[in-house]
Amino acid sequence: MSEKQNYTKAFKELQTLVAEIELGEISVDELSAKVKRAAELIKFCKAKLSNTEEDVNIILKELDKSGNDI
Amino acid sequence: MSEQSLDKKIYSLFEVNLSIQKTLAGRYKSAFWVKAEMNKLNYYSQSGHCFPEMVEKKDGKVIAQMRCSLWKNDFITINNAFLRILKEPLKDGIKILFLAQITFDPTYGLSLHILDIDPSYTLGDLEKEKAESIQKLKSEGIYDQNKTLEFPLLPQRIAIISVESSKGYGDFMNILNTNPWNYKFFSLMFPSLLQGEKAVESIIHQLERIKKVKRHFDIVVIIRGGGGDIGLSCYNNYNLAREIALFPLPVLTGIGHSTNETVSEMISYSNAITPSKLAEYLIQSFHNFSIPVQKAKEKIEERALRFIRDEQGKLLSEIKLFSAVTKRLLQEDYTNLKNFKTALQLHAIISFQNQRSIIGRSSSRLIERSQQLLKDYKSELLFLEKNVNNMHPRNVLKRGYSIARIEGKAISNLNQIKVGDIIYTELFEGTINSTINEILTAEK
């Protein structure tokens, strides 16, 4: 997975993959590769979400601290 | 004693005069009362005698005149009576009623010898003159003229008609200059005679001088005092009174006497009994100005203070209001910010939840669908496998089918065989060896 991968792109790709899989348009030859890719994307998105959430929480906490100074 | 010369009888002047003297003495034996105007008193201070010049005028023209004599002792008696009754001495220009005898002196000629003068006649005449002055001023419409002038707010610059030596002037200046309120007066002396016949001309002369510099003065005062009540009839003089009435500045008098008010005093802007009273009057004018000024000052102070207090109050309440509003606005903004922050947190949480659930759903769908897909493929394969199995010859034989062979080859065509051939029929459980009896072709 490239470093430049971002959540939006990953998510779009994931949605496309899932849609393809749901429609059963995937041949057996491609299946494992695509499922593997989808799993990777899910993992990436989850990680990205967790990291982002952590960041956001830190920022919000800082906001709280400065907020109390008002 | 006359001389006889040819055809003329000649008398000496003395003889003539003696004759006249004798004739007149015979004719005018007793004294009689005469009324006339005393044009000149002609008092000789050395001898103490007077030789008045009496005239009678008609329409301003002298129609009769006569030299008179008034001996020292008679003069003193008469003059005292005048001073007592008229407050005026015997003087030029008055009308008198006198008791006289005609005398004729060979040396001095004809004259009236004055034995007595009736002061009451002159008094009446003076009163008449005074009344005439008043009447004349009134008929000219100038009687009130000086009184109607606007009195200056501060009668500060004073033209004084008086004399330095006058006690009244001293009193006047003393009161003005030592007033405890420190009112400042400016004064300039215009010296003048203040009583007697010459005073009229003298005062008028000074009034004329003041008129030329009137812009430097607020008022004119005529001050006299300490000179008794004598010689004041000059103030009844029409010309003087007129001059005062028409004067462009208010003229105030403080002539100081106890007799009746003179015309000049009547027509002046204001008359005080004495110079001191006049000074007090002027100081009172300053009071009249000063007190409202003082009150105005107090009022201004009070108003200014009140205004400042009001404004301070307003400012304070503005500050309070401003502070309150500001605090409230800050509080509102703070609350908004807090709400916004909470909303932000909430949104973040929801956002993450949404994303998680989408990812989660994707994940589970992926799992589900890919498994399903695998399952489908498996079942498809299984089906195929089944079919394949079904088509296996052993399985076909099992189901009761059999394979006929000749010389090891499966018979699929009747051409391969003929009657009498030995064929082998393979069954599931074994092989049958049989000979062909007949070949029947299947109906098409």
Record the SSE blueprint.
The complex is a heterodimer of chains A (70) and B (444).
Chain A: H1 7-23, H2 28-68
Helix pairs in contact in A: 1-2
Chain B: E1 3-5, E2 8-10, H1 13-27, E3 32-40, E4 53-58, E5 61-69, H2 72-85, E6 94-105, E7 109-118, H3 119-139, E8 157-162, H4 167-177, E9 186-191, H5 199-212, E10 219-223, H6 238-245, E11 251-254, H7 263-267, E12 270-271, H8 275-391, H9 393-398, E13 403-406, E14 409-410, E15 422-426, E16 431-435
Parallel strand pairs in B: 5-7, 8-9, 8-10, 10-11, 11-12
Antiparallel strand pairs in B: 1-2, 3-4, 3-6, 4-5, 6-7, 13-14, 13-15, 15-16
Helix pairs in contact in B: 3-6, 4-8, 5-6
Which labels suit this protein?
heterodimer; A: 70 residues; mainly alpha; Helix Hairpins; 2 helices; 0% strand; rod-shaped; B: alpha/beta; OB fold (Dihydrolipoamide Acetyltransferase, E2P); Rossmann fold; 5-stranded parallel β-sheet; 20% strand
Structure in words:
The complex is a heterodimer of chains A (70) and B (444). Chain A is an all-alpha fold. Chain A has one domain (7-68): Helix Hairpins (Orthogonal Bundle). In chain A, 83% of the residues lie in helices and 0% in strands. Chain A contains two helices and no strands. Chain A has helices spanning 7-23, 28-68. Chain A is rod-shaped. The model of chain A has no long low-confidence stretch (mean pLDDT 78). With 444 residues, chain B is an alpha/beta fold. Among the domains of chain B are: 3-139, OB fold (Dihydrolipoamide Acetyltransferase, E2P), CATH 2.40.50.140; 157-288, Dehydroquinase, class II (Rossmann fold, 3-Layer(aba) Sandwich), CATH 3.40.50; 396-435, no CATH class. Chain B has a five-stranded mixed barrel with strand order 3-4-5-7-6. A five-stranded parallel sheet of chain B has the order 9-8-10-11-12, sandwiched between helices. In chain B, a hairpin with a 3-residue loop joins strand 6 and strand 7 (109-118). In chain B, helix 3 (119-139) runs parallel beside helix 6, helix 4 packs parallel to helix 8 and helix 5 packs parallel to helix 6. Chain A binds chain B through residues 11, 14-15, 17-18, 21-22, 24, 26, 28, 31, 35, 38-39, 42, 45-46, 49, 52-53, 56-57, 60, 63-64, 67, 70, and chain B through 330, 334, 337-338, 341, 344-345, 348, 352, 355-356, 358-359, 362-363, 365-366, 369-370, 373-374, 376-377.
